Amino acid sequence: MLRFVPILTLVLMIGPVSAGLIGTLLPAFGILPALGGTTPSLDPWQAMFAQPGLGTSIRLSFVNGLIATAISVSIVMLFCAAWQGTRIFHAMQRVLSPILSVPHATAAFGLAFLIAPSGWIVRVVAQVAGWERPPDIAIIHDPWGIALIAGLVAKEIPFLFLMTLSALPQADTDRTAQVTASLGYGRIAGWFKATLPRIYPQIRLPVLAVLAYSTSVVDVAIILAPTTPAPLSVRILGWLSDPDLALRFMASSAAVLQLLIVIAAMAIWIAGERLVAVIGARWAIDGNRFKQDGAVRGVSAVMALVAAGTVVLGLVVLLVWSVAGFWAFPDLLPRGFSLRLWARELDAIGNSLTTTLLIGIPAVVIAVTLVLACLENEVRSGKVAGRRAMFLIYLPLLVPQISFMFGLQVFFSLLGLERTLVSVVLGHLVFVAPYVFLSLSEPFRALDPRYGQTALCLGASPTRVFWQVRLPLLTRAVLTAAAVGLAVTVGQYLPTLLIGAGRFATVTTEAVALASGGDRRMIGIYGLFQMVLPFAGFALALLIPAVLFRHRRGMGAQNKG
Amino acid sequence: MPEAAKNGLELHDVRVRLDGRELVAVDLTIAPGEIVTLMGPSGSGKSSLLGHICGTLPDAFEVTGQVVLDGRVLDGLAPQDRHVGILFQDDLLFPHLSVGGNLAFAVPAHIKGRAARRARVEAALGSAEMDGFYDRDPATLSGGQRARVALMRVLLSEPCALLLDEPFSKLDSGLRSQIRSVVFDLCRKNSLPTLMVTHDPEDGAAAGGRVIELRG
Question: Distance, in angstroms, between B212 CA and closest chain A CA?
Answer without folding.
Answer: 25
